[in-house]
Amino acid sequence: MRTYYEDYAVSGVSIWSMLAPGRRCISLPSSVTACTLPTAYCTMEPILLAFNSSFSGWVIADFCPRLDITKDVLYVGDILENNIYNVGNMAKHATSAVTTAVGTPNIALIKYWGKRDYTGLNTPNNSSISMTLDETLSTRTSLIFSDKLSKDTLYINGIEEAVSGENIPEKSAYLKRTLDYMRKLSGTKENALIVSENSFPSSAGIASSASGAATLVFALSNALNLKMSLKDMSIIARQISGSACRSLFGGIVKWNKGSKADGTDSYAEQVFDETYWPELIDIIAIVDPSKKKVSSSIGHAATVKTSVLYTARPKFAEKGIYDIEKAVKDRDIDMLSMTIMRDSNNMHATMLDTWPPIMYLTDASKEIIYGIHDMNDTEGKCIAGYTFDAGPNAHIITTEKYRKRVNEMLEHTGVVRKALESHMGKGPRLLREDGSLIDEKALKPKHAKH
Known about the structure:
Layout: E1 9-10, E2 13-14, E3 25-26, E4 34-36, E5 47-52, E6 57-63, E7 73-75, E8 84-86, E9 99-103, E10 106-110, E11 128-132, E12 139-146, E13 153-156, E14 159-161, H1 170-186, E15 191-198, H2 208-223, H3 230-240, E16 252-255, E17 268-272, E18 280-286, H4 296-306, H5 313-330, H6 333-353, H7 363-379, E19 385-388, E20 394-399, H8 403-413, E21 418-423, E22 429-430, E23 438-439, E24 444-445
Parallel strand pairs: 13-15
Antiparallel strand pairs: 1-2, 3-6, 4-7, 5-6, 5-8, 9-12, 9-22, 10-11, 11-16, 12-15, 13-14, 16-17, 18-20, 18-21, 19-20, 23-24
Helix pairs in contact: 1-2, 1-3, 2-3, 5-6, 7-8
């Protein structure tokens, strides 16, 4: 059973606003003969409405794959013997204008490493929890659907990336599949031009794929008028890049690992919003902006297959999530710092134990690790904690109170090329037309490289 909460007007009567959480009744005036329905979120199947006298109205009974999904109107008329009415495809799409969104990466405080599914669902072996960053680091994505486009085209940082054909990158294949899926949901057959730019290094362990995938799915949902919930967007974004599901929300976000084979219970949800602990900051120490040698997708599989240490990691990570939630709730930087450092060390230990070993950390990374521990020892408590994704660049979580102290420590190491600072962010948002990366008349990127 699935309920909808959108506010759609039907012959001047709003029926969707009547669906408060826990209510399944849709009250339709007897004079209504037709109404357009909202999107069916993550399903391409129509739904079934049944009249229920105990509710004095219509109840969303089930998803019904046998019905015709080419229609986009629900007809309410003569009562059928079984009191069941058909619903077709639930969304109208708008494809005539450029849609632009901006989103941000997240830094996992308890990390996901290792998948239980390798068929494209990207379901993890353990849950994870993260901090969404602000727009100091951001991805801007513009897209347009048009019957004047001969094919789907993707540009990332000004360079065209293949999204179809043989031997395309794995993430491009997932992106194409997502695009086709959401296009089918909306009922459009038009091709898309997608232009995306990052304000920070890509493939360097700063979650550029998470930021990119989350922003794309958010933009697609809005461009196609799909009216998806953030939860359902997170399920789709996860299939392009696992950690992308967490970037659909602001603040502190948990990705539930789930257990279902179809991945429908593996989704992200907000635990604390971005205003809960405004003093919390992430100081990002970039020691090497170049692309990592081993992709995360290859690393996931290799570690699960060959690391003896990995069998203990999922349980350790799940315990860490509980500790992180408590530390944030109590605004306890000491407990938070210790927990994230131990989790980062644990994950990278399984990588080093992989055969052949995966070593994302460099000598520069280790200098930062030593510097953080020396600083904490001097203070007599943890005032900051490091964490490393699949790359050599450090994320140092601390508070405004200790910001100056951490930056002095980083400068003293002599290994940091550039430092960025981010507070907690709000998640993706739409931009006005003047933020577009697409020349709408020419149907080309404004900043393509040749």
